[in-house]
What does this fold into?
Amino acid sequence: MKRGKEVKTIKFSWADAFRFGYDNIKRRFHRTRIVLAAVTLGIAFFSTLYFTDAFFKVYAQMEGGSLRVENYQYWLVFVSLIVSVVSITNSMLIAVYERYREIGTMKCLGALDQHILKLFLVESIILALVGGTLGFGVGLVASVISCSFIISFKVFLQAPISVFLTLLGEAVFLSVILSAAATLYPAYKAAKLNPVEALRHEI
Amino acid sequence: MKSDYIIETENLARYYEVGGEIIKALNGVDLKVRRGEYLSIVGPSGSGKTTLFNMIGGLDRPTRGRVVIDGVDVSQLDAYELAWLRCRKIGYIFQTFNLIETLTALENVALPTIFAGVPRAEGTKKAEIFLKTVGLDQRLNHKPSELSAGQQQRVAIARAMANDPSIILADEPTGNLDLHTGTEIINLIRDLNKTRGMTVIAATHDLKMIEVSDRVIWMRDGEIEKIETEEAALKE
It folds into this structure.
């Protein structure tokens, strides 16, 4: 029998990666919630400050006055975001370490380095989307509570909807960028694992 | 024309450097495996069985010599082609099962079909059929932790078959099983070898596995000590 030239394909689509990533997050929630907490807290802090800034601006337009967010507060946000990134990297490194054998097994079954990279990146992006949105919500509530001591409640109702939408977009975007950046090294490390060594690994 | 041999190794060697000292895990192995053969590799630990496995399985690259699988020199393959080889040509069975803990039996078996690019519904269907073949059609949605050791190894066998590979590599498949379960697993592997014509290479200490082999290879210090047929091996 004559055989045509075989087309050699190996696949792991983004849809597969999302399905796997989502399942993994759900089934390993004890581990992933640490990453989720890191993302949420960082973004919550960020959102609180930017909401406060926005409310102050609306207040200034309505009533005049010179309430403003201090520069050092932006530095604090910056530092807290760095802390978030470091803790995400740390958690992801532990996650990779815990999943050595799983990674080795997947490579035995035909996974390419890029598939493993994709899997970890997608997981962190899903967490970032959820964490970014949660952080946005927490930040909104926190800023309303803290501002309500200083400015009247109607300011919050006067704030244009575009402020909220822009900030939601920024929060989620920032969260995705930071999480992806934080996961790059752990995911790369996982992808480069030698399957022989990964399979020999015992926790 | 296809060669009669599905696997050929020529002067295969693998050296490791550990603390400035060179360890010769494999030192010049010449081996020819026929299509559909059931081959057992026996030897003390450190004799190079696992290294030979990793070489044949495309998991590790030789220091010297070559491995030819189905007429293709494995050391010439790039990462993509190697992944394809592992995915489509070879099925692995491990001593420690290595199932993915978060996936159900069905998902574990369907996993290799995803990498092979089989549509999801079709892959799941195939996985169901294979799980039925190994007698686990009542356990499709159980996680590995909810299955006994023997059942886990059955899932692993179904997974190894998922892409209809021509070679099954089994590294001490009965090493973590009791005698009775081990025998069942051996019979199952032998059965697949007979009915599906899959070439089986199994590393083992288990006499029961030697009994069902076509040939037995004795390894020592990274070299083949002798190759015997099953009858001769059992006499010893």
